[in-house]
Amino acid sequence: MGIVAPAKAAPSQGSSGSTRNVGTFIVTLTETGQLFELDDLLRASAEVLGKGTVASTYKVTLDSGYELVVKRLKNVHLRKEEFEQHVTLIGAIQSKHIAQLRWYYYSKDEKMLVYNIFPMGSLAKVLHGDTVAGPAPLDWEQRSAFSLAVARGVAAIHLAGPSSCHGNIKSSNILLTGAHDACVSENGLITLGMYSNASGYRGPEVTGNRWVT
């Protein structure tokens, strides 16, 4: 199963001079030097990982075998300039405790974000289990290490500037990167649209204003 092609997809300025539908790399290359564009994502096989408030999330396998996570954003009505400003700020935050935004695509009818895949999954899966397996035992050393990693990720977000905030902290947005390490995902995505039914913690800097300022 592949990702459904966007309706009326318009070209956006990308990292190459091609006139086909292209996106923009925040980080010039993936960690293995893998280049891709919208056509590659639409042609790839895709597995639905979840459908949340902010986005539908897919695990995409390119023809080369390289795996990525693609988020198709919902209810985002920003103009292109505003959207690019937001995602550029999100992608500029460099920390091992934040899932790095790699690439984005913008058109009137479609907005996509691409991240590296985290095979260990989320903290929510470990704590609560899923349809395949039950909860995994975590000792206090692991719990405190994950908590510290998340705190460092959130600190890096806040240090990026007064308009930088996560806005939707919850265990499903904490991805495990090791037995004693983790990173925060979906940084800033809640600020791209209005999501009154978001289930994670949203600080007053998000709930008190239409847009974070």
Notes on the structure:
With 213 residues, the protein is of the alpha+beta class. It contains five helices and eight strands. The chain is globular. The N and C termini lie far apart (40 Å).
In terms of topology, how is this protein built?
Blueprint: E1 24-25, H1 38-43, E2 45-51, E3 55-61, E4 67-73, H2 80-92, E5 101-106, E6 111-116, H3 123-128, H4 140-159, E7 174-178, E8 181-184, H5 204-207
Antiparallel strand pairs: 1-5, 2-3, 3-4, 4-6, 5-6, 7-8
Give a quick rundown of the structure.
The protein has five helices and eight strands, in the order βαβββαββααββα. The protein has 213 residues and is an alpha+beta fold.
> Which outline best applies?
globular
Order of helices and strands: EHEEEHEEHHEEH
Give the integer mean of the pLDDT values.
80
Task: Give the helix/strand class.
Answer: alpha+beta
So how many helices? 5
Q: What's the helical proportion of residues?
A: 10-25%
Outline the low-pLDDT stretches: 4-20
Proportion of residues in extended strands: 15-25%
Number of distinct beta strands: 8
Radius of gyration: 17 Å
Going across the biggest sheet, name each strand in turn: 1-5-6-4-3-2
Distance between the termini: 40 Å
Biggest sheet features: 6 strands, antiparallel
